[in-house]
Design goal:
- Two copies of one chain form a homodimer.
- Chain A is built from five helices and eleven strands; from the N terminus they run βαββαβββαββββααβ.
- Chain A is globular, with a radius of gyration of 19 Å.
- Chain A has helices at 29-41, 75-85, 141-149, 199-211, 217-226; strands at 3-11, 48-49, 58-68, 91-99, 111-120, 133-135, 153-156, 171-174, 176-181, 185-192, 241-247.
- Chain A is of the alpha+beta class.
- The longest helix of chain A has 13 residues, at 29-41.
- In chain A, helix 3 (141-149) runs parallel beside helix 5.
């Protein structure tokens, strides 16, 4: 009997051209994992993810699933086999469990959680190179927090939607946007049932304009209400973005 | 008039063959920084560090100093110039300040602080690859803490001293050894006026034997009292070790 395996994945986005399988020879998280399934069981499975992250975007708790006909392999065996087969790519199966037949990593997800990390200091990153957005000029946390409040709730997010976004509707509900500052790191946490393409990075880029005093907090509301990508701020780079988890 | 510049440095150890300058063509933190000084001012300065870290060992707050005849360059100018010149190597000058004439990064340091990080989980590291020691088998934190207590204080640390250590005396005073566990990460913090060569990594390797139940906590005391490197545990790998700071 076929079994459905749910995976929780961690990966370093800098090692991949994004989640989604592309033409042969392009290293993506999906293609590396599907190849690992093939080497393990000989099956050409499709692996579905809760969020199809872009090139450079990381994951600490991406959720994915696939279906296998091999009922002799337990989820724990799958976890270890996949971890052996994905080497040397920087992706790791943290957890593999058996899922119900109606579970779908993408369509069953109730919320997605993202984090965006800005290293806000003069000195370049060393350890965290490729894992943060390095912003030299100091950011005004309180102004960014005021601006962020305008983005919470249900809105038409066209201002923060990439031109090539394929979603049918630009309406999304942002349930959480928290901005916290550590010693040198500013962390923005986002939660929503789903996001438009580049929505998080476009919101971060816009909030950064506020943090630098080039925009007032209320300018974010004006931009949101314009429903026009041309009125939003720039797209923050992918390396600061982390897919934290999906809730079901 | 000559001025003495004190630097606080961050670096990713994986990018260097250790701190110390070697023959030409070998990339070390010291050689990269000295080359950056030369490109900035034309001077062939020697840069002294508080702790000469090994290949693969990281720093979050290494302290170093050098002397320059250029009194027209402020410490802030030095910081930015060095950060520009060290590119693309993963080392960063966090802080540059003027120091007194009798300040010496190595000889004036009163304490060195190190941290060793063990990723204790089944799945391989992705993000933190090269920044942690990945140990699959679960470690018994409480047993390690009991064992660690034997190492605190002043002792002859010959059991934990690398054969090629050049220190005159094997006597050292370990003032702090704290072991804490997060979700998947075990962190060991060490503080002492100074350490023998490989002392921290040899202590970590030995404590790991206790964590795995192969040694009892008291076996560490027996090993310490033997004053014989042959009686100590293995040397933990460099990538888990971070030079946190030096106190003056």
């Amino acid at each position: 009997m076929a079994q459905r395996i749910k995976l929780v994945l961690e990966y370093f986005g800098g090692g991949f051209s994004g989640w989604q399988r592309q033409e042969a020879g392009v290293t993506t998280v999906q293609s590396v994992l599907e190849e690992a399934v093939f080497r393990t069981s000989g099956e050409t499975a499709v692996i579905h993810a809760s969020g199809r992250t872009d090139a450079g975007v990381h994951a600490l708790g991406q959720v994915a699933h696939f279906v296998t006909e091999r009922d002799d392999l337990t989820p724990a065996v799958w976890r270890d086999a996949l971890n052996a087969q994905v080497r040397p790519h920087p992706v790791s199966v943290l957890l593999a469990t058996r899922a119900d037949d109606d579970f779908h990593a993408r369509f069953s997800a109730k919320q997605r959680h993202y984090e965006y990390r800005i290293l806000n200091r003069r000195a370049p990153a060393t350890w965290q190179r490729g894992m943060v957005w390095h912003v030299i000029k100091p950011l005004d946390l309180s102004a960014m927090q005021q601006a962020a409040a305008h983005l919470l709730g249900q809105h038409d997010f066209s201002t923060f939607r990439a031109a090539f976004c394929q979603a049918k509707s630009p309406i999304r509900t942002l349930q959480e946007l928290e901005i916290a500052a550590g010693d040198e790191m500013i962390t923005l946490r986002f939660m929503a049932p789903s996001f438009l393409y580049h929505q998080v990075r476009n919101m971060v880029g816009t909030l950064t304009l506020v943090g630098h005093g080039r925009w007032q907090p209320d300018d974010v509301l004006t931009a949101l209400q314009a429903k026009d990508r041309g009125r939003g701020g720039p797209t923050a780079p992918p390396e600061g973005l982390v897919f934290l988890k999906a809730s079901y």
